[in-house]
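Sample pair:
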Amino acid sequence: MRKDKPKKRLLLPDPKFNDTLVTRFVNNLMKSGKRSTASGLFYDALNIVAEKTQEDGLETWKKALTNIMPAVEVKSRRVGGATFQIPTEIRPDRKTALGMKWMIGYASLRNEKSMAERLAGEIIAASKGEGAAVKKKDDTHRMAEANKAFSHFRV
């Protein structure tokens, strides 16, 4: 087993918006180390969001991310030969990580032409409390609520 926990790496803030949350999102969006492509996609998506909603793209994105981030999740735990789904609180770091992954994952499954348009569509839907990523959060919360009876097995 590991002696110490690994140190958290500090991220540099995004050059355009001066925000580390944007850097994290671009890092999640990035494939094969192509950061400039990923950041270009993100900026294009925010521009599309700003055009369609007549609001600030970054603020809409942050609102969407807040709507997607889950508060509780279920974890499997074996107790006496049976496996129980135990609802647990999610730490803030993991909340944002899950929210970002869900947003990007469900954006890529959408039917618009370019990834920037798909991402913009998912951001707009999530900011209104709709969309597949918000549904995923609701399903996760529903699952935790259904298994609340097993919360006394918490690790």
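Helices lie at 20-29, 35-53, 57-68, 92-108, 115-127, 132-146.
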